[in-house]
Amino acid sequence: MAMEHVTTLECTLCGTEYDPDQIIYTCPEHEGVKGILEVEYDYDVIHDNFDADLDGNIRSQWKYKPFLPVHDDAEVVTLEEGGSSLLDAPNLSEELGVTTLIKDDGRNPTGCFKDRASSVSVTKAKNDGRDIVICASTGNAAASLSGYAARGGLDCRIFVPGDAPEGKLAQPLVYGADVLAVNGSYDEAYDLSMEATEKYGWYNRNAAVNPFQVEGKRTVGLELAEQSAVRGEVPDWFVFSMGDGCTIAGAWKGFREFYDLDYVEDTPKMLGVQAEGASAIHDTFHEHDDIDEIADTLADSIAVGRPRNTIKACRALKESGGTSLLVSDDDILAGEKLLGSTEGIYAEPAGATPVAGVKEARERGIIADDETVVICTTGFGLKDTESAKQATGDAYRVDPRIEEVNDLYGEAQPAAADD
Ligand SMILES: *Cc1c(COP(=O)(O)O)cnc(C)c1O
Ligand SMILES: [Zn+2]
């Protein structure tokens, strides 16, 4: 049952260290504010155990098992998450005026990035002998956890805001979870899930209190680092949307680890993008005076009023030399349409938010002409077709008569004969 590569859990607020084999969500030294724990590793042990070829062949994130905070002999609960492609995006690059690649994480088993984290936490819960896992979610974490709980044979209970997109409520139901649609905001659903955790002792996957969640998210950084090493070029920017801030924090931690281990020669600057209506991490990073706790954006996956991982997210932005910016909902929808129509990649609004962010960063001169950008599209578009329709407008309605097609396209030329 060794987990010798994990040394301590260190509080991001006060620095107190805890034994990684205790189940601790947050540092008990603080009331109200959460002292989120950072998982610390012994990189000599990781280096010794990690003998994978850095050849760019990444079947799943478990290629990086020596980096993940699970016991060596843990039975892994996986649907082959991660290993997402790094795609050239020549058409989008032209539109944005900068070389852009896409790390397409909408291709994960449940359609979003969060599978990287769910696989790790369900693996841990199962190996701890837990049979009930729970989380609060704007939708995707719930769907993801439900899928992995089903895979691992655990019961799953999830707390979502009652106005989550229909698709996101249907998905966990199909995976057999109990779905508690809370009449209230995400923040209220979150608080209720925390109360339930305390009362019933269920295993809680909430990314911001469960320190192991971010750890699974690191694999996107490890992968991009490996893919960069294979391409022979580290991108200048790695771009994410931010809700609670765990995703960008994990991505940075992973990339930096590969750099520290000398597997790759440089690191990218992290660009975090938030919606204008849910801007708390951005406001904190830029030291704005009043930080709005409302969350008003159609990009539901990043509609977070009180982000739980602001400290880790700001640290990622700062350490990497990056920054954050805001985009409007209209920009996000335009980004969704642009991504789909230029590259055939269909992302949900939060997944397309980085596209809007890069456009904005280009206009403001934050990203220079000669730089290279990697956008991570974190969620698949079919998760939220309502927003997609707002982005695109409606289909043409036609009667089944060729004249109606003619009305659209004019008199057609006769099809050219082959001979
Ligand atoms: C959860 C989520 C995010 C944001 O991740 P955080 O860790 O909350 O910052 C972005 N995009 C999608 C699709 C998500 O589901
Ligand atoms: Zn503390």
From TrEMBL:
Source species, domain of life: Archaea
N6-(pyridoxal phosphate)lysine PTM positions: K114
EC numbers for this chain: 4.2.3.1
UniProt entry tagged with the keyword Repressor: no
Binding site for pyridoxal 5'-phosphate: N140, T378
CDD domains found in the cross-reference section: Thr-synth_1 (cd01563)
A Pfam short name: PALP
Alphabetical UniProt keywords: Amino-acid biosynthesis, Lyase, Pyridoxal phosphate, Threonine biosynthesis
Keyword S-adenosyl-L-methionine: no
Cofactor(s) named in the record: pyridoxal 5'-phosphate
Catalytic activity: O-phospho-L-homoserine + H2O = L-threonine + phosphate
GO terms under biological process: isoleucine biosynthetic process; L-serine catabolic process; L-threonine catabolic process; threonine biosynthetic process
GO molecular-function terms, A-Z: L-serine ammonia-lyase activity; threonine deaminase activity; threonine synthase activity
InterPro entries: Ser/Thr_Dehydratase, Thr_synthase-like, Thr_Synthase_bac/arc, TrpB-like_PALP, TrpB-like_PALP_sf
Ranges where the Tryptophan synthase beta chain-like PALP domain occurs: 77-379
Metabolic or biological pathway, per its Swiss-Prot or TrEMBL entry: Amino-acid biosynthesis; L-threonine biosynthesis; L-threonine from L-aspartate: step 5/5
Enzyme class: lyase
Family: Belongs to the threonine synthase family.
Functional note: Catalyzes the gamma-elimination of phosphate from L-phosphohomoserine and the beta-addition of water to produce L-threonine.
Descriptive protein name: Threonine synthase
Species annotation: Halococcus saccharolyticus DSM 5350
